[in-house]
Design a protein that fits this description.
mainly alpha
């Protein structure tokens, strides 16, 4: 998970550079087509043996690759990398709500308190954004929702295929799903401004990062694995400041802090004890 956090934190800046020179849908297409090709050896060892497994892989591919990546890359194209990172940090809270709706996890007052704090943070961050757009921030929120759904589905399906093989099969279905949005800009991308970010996202973010993430979700559950996502926005914000010269204003900074605080409160990282009640009676 430490490797996932580092590679995904830097991914915000690297992908923003890539989509600054290439359309988001085309960038996603070539990224996951390359991923599918490179993971063929693993896919040949683990492959779906039933129609049910194929359908589940199709759902995961469309959710976690086609729809999520389209929203994510479009958000990075239209707004600050730091904005996308902090708004995406709402995905653990969305995962918790999903687990509650699926009756996988009970909800308490801390979840509602955390949701309220995060909501205030979102309003501040989006409303005070000076270096991005409200539409771009909206795509970031949609990406967070789709990632939460993808996490819940990964946890729920428990496919016999795992790791790099699972990443490869999802890339196949996700790449097919992206075709209707393709602009076929330059047909085949060229130049290090595009190939550099593509290579990074394929090797470190997708093949390594996504495979490790899926293993973590299946090992400890979606809620616990999502705890590690709290560190990613900090890495993204610092990298955006150093590499891209992005800066968060005062209200944006307060909103970002409130989002992270709210999610950690909802998750139960901070424990609040009821006043006037003896611990032994709780």
């Amino acid at each position: 998970m430490a490797l996932v956090v580092l590679s995904w934190g830097l991914n915000y800046v690297v992908t923003k550079i890539g989509v600054g020179h290439y359309p988001p849908a085309d960038f996603v297409f070539w990224r996951f087509l390359a991923t599918a090709v490179l993971t063929v050896p693993w896919m040949m060892r683990q492959y779906p043996t039933s129609l049910v497994a194929v359908v589940k892989l199709l759902i995961l591919g469309v959710t976690g690759v086609t729809l999520y990546q389209l929203s994510f890359t479009t958000a990075l194209h239209d707004t600050l990398a730091a904005n996308v990172a902090f708004l995406f940090d709402l995905s653990p809270l969305m995962t918790l709500v999903g687990q509650r709706l699926m009756r996988l996890r009970p909800s308490g007052p801390q979840m509602f308190l955390g949701a309220g704090i995060s909501l205030i943070g979102v309003l501040l961050l989006v409303g005070a954004s000076t270096g991005g757009t409200i539409l771009g921030d909206g795509y970031a929120l949609l990406a967070a929702l789709l990632w939460a759904l993808f996490t819940l589905l990964t946890d729920r399906f428990h496919l016999p295929i795992s790791g790099i093989a699972l990443t490869g099969w999802m890339s196949v279905f996700g790449t097919i799903g992206i075709l209707p949005w393709m602009r076929w800009n330059q047909v085949v991308p060229h130049g290090m401004d595009i190939w550099g970010p593509l290579a990074y996202t394929v090797v470190f973010v997708t093949i390594m990062g996504l495979s490790l993430w899926q293993n973590a979700v299946m090992a400890v559950g979606g809620g616990k694995a999502s705890l590690y996502l709290y560190v990613i926005p900090v890495i993204a914000a610092v990298a955006g400041w150093i590499v891209l010269g992005e800066k968060l204003g005062l209200l944006e900074g307060v909103g970002a802090v409130l989002i992270v605080l709210g999610v950690t409160v909802a998750e139960g990282v901070w424990h609040f004890r009821r006043v006037g009640k003896h611990p032994a009676a709780e």
